[in-house]
Amino acid sequence: CEVDQFVPSALASGLGVLATTKDCIVVDLGGGKTDAAVFQAGACTKVATVDVNSDHVTTDIAALIKISREDAEAIKIGQGIADPAQVGEEEAIDVKQVGTESARKFPRKVLSEIIESRVREIATLVREALVHERQPLPSTILLTGGGSQLAGTDEVFKSAFVAESVRLVSPSLVGTNSRRAAAPEMACTVGLARFVLSPEEES
Question: Which residues, other chains included, contact 137 with Cβ-Cβ below 8 Å and sequence gap of 6+?
Fold first, then answer.
């Protein structure tokens, strides 16, 4: 088996979700890593990967609230939000801490602060990896990947990048079997397919 060409996953994710936007930053928030690519005038000008990812959010929740990783993931998806300003002081969630038999109330705002801290770290690391002193970054950010679905993530990235616009995006597909592939976590896979099938590659 011969390898014809390597395609950076950050570039593939961008190709998977880009439509009409020509100047933007595409950030794929995955479970194993976070990929980012800068597109200017429709061309990819820089890519970067950081090791901190959405799985670290789950790890933080489990460690700081003292619950199982499985419960932490469920709470992150069902009750998590990365913007504490959107959570009321009186809001609480039920948690069953390791070693206890019954659930207890835990402030949802504290949960949000735990999540926000890690998401902000991810956003800051991505920005530092992409910034170039001679080339300003685009002011539009497109977030994709499974981790992008965590509520409030867009607001954290908007603040960290001082961006004008942050949008959550998924691959845009048509066809009878397109629904499954149109999920945010499929951005990289869809982008690879588009790269292989692009007219430039076919010619």
Answer: 25, 38, 127, 130, 131, 161
Distance CA 180, CA 134 (A): 41
Contact 190, 173 (CB under 8 A): yes
Contact 183, 110 (CB under 8 A): no
Q: Which helix (H) or strand (E) holds 61?
A: helix 54-65
| Per-residue tokens: 1 | 């088996």
Taking CA 191 as the corner, what is the angle to CA 198 and CA 177, rounded to the nearest 5 degrees? 95
pLDDT digits (tens, 9 = 90+) for 61-105: 999 999 999 999 999 999 999 999 999 999 999 999 999 989 999
31 vs 14: CA distance, rounded Å: 17
